[in-house]
Amino acid sequence: MIIYPAIDIKDGKCVRLVQGDMDKSTVYYDDPVEAALKWQGMGAEYLHVVDLNGAFRGQPSNRKAVREILKKVDVPVQLGGGVRDMTTMEELLDAGISRVILGTAALRDREFLAWAVGSYPSGVVVGIDARDGYVAVEGWSKVSRVKALDFAREIEEMGVSTIIFTDISRDGTMEGPNLYSIEKMVQGTGLEVIASGGISRIGDLKALKDVGAGGAVIGKALYAGSIDLRDAVGMFKEE
Questions:
Q1: How far from 199 is each of 4, 18, 170, CA to CA, in Å?
Q2: pTM, whole model, 2 decimals?
Q3: Residue pair 104/74 in contact by the 8 Å Cβ criterion
Q4: Which of 15, 133, 196, 208 has most Cβ atoms within 10 angstroms of its Cβ?
């Protein structure tokens, strides 16, 4: 299982939100590059970067910070937040992003998703963010009428192989992941499921692996110090 340290960028700074609320943000680093270098230095194999402003605005809004991260780190980076068209996706991949996370666009623009998967099969990950079992979009500010599992099955048929599944109610709360929903997603599809939301201790990571998750995005637990990244990465490397 791969551990993905999360670097969420708002107004050029590395922050953490609670349940996706932009008004409930805590700044951990004025320069997101510091966070990226710290996690790389502690053994991160992959970084998970989110442009929070971009997610709300519908277009990348923290390009400078993202470019600086790409310049300074050697590990691959996946990026989400505001990627809604072909041009933007191609620009990010050309800039050095390894995988682009499609969320709102994946739900609302199947033609774009089909093009993305067909053109860059290894460069696309779909973020499925769920509130009460339904897919949320536009930075989690709106909830659709589409059930998360139904959506996952549909995009699997389109050729998507990996999703990042987030239970919004758990995000930033340190209450533990929603194991039931994650296991349901794993068993109900053939997708690689990267779990996100609520992870607070090493035991949560073990539980996620037990239900079949292929990866875990960790945010607040790393910044608050309740999980040591070296320990987490090392634990799964030894297996």
A1: 12, 13, 8
A2: 0.94
A3: no
A4: 196
- Please tell me what DSSP assigns to residue 137: E
Query: Residue range 75-80: average pLDDT?
Result: 98
Long-range contact set of residues 29-37: C-beta below 8 Å, sequence gap at least 24: 31/65, 31/68, 32/7, 32/65, 32/68, 32/69, 33/65, 33/68, 33/69, 33/72, 35/5, 35/7, 36/7, 36/69, 36/72, 36/73, 37/72, 37/73
Q: Look at 126 and 59; give whichever has higher pLDDT.
A: 126
Query: Please, what is the angle between helix 86-95 and helix 110-119, to 10°?
Result: 30
Domain count, the chain: 1
pLDDT tens column, 179-221: 999 999 999 999 999 999 999 999 999 999 999 999 999 999 9
C-alpha 149/C-alpha 130 separation (Å) is 10
* Partners of residue 193 on adjacent β-strands: 163
Active site residues: 8, 129
As a whole number, the mean pLDDT across the chain is 93
- The yes-or-no verdict on residue 140 having pLDDT over 70 is no
- In this model, does residue 238 exceed pLDDT 80? no
Q: Which domain holds residue 9?
A: 2-237
| 13-18 and 2-10 beta bridge pairing | antiparallel
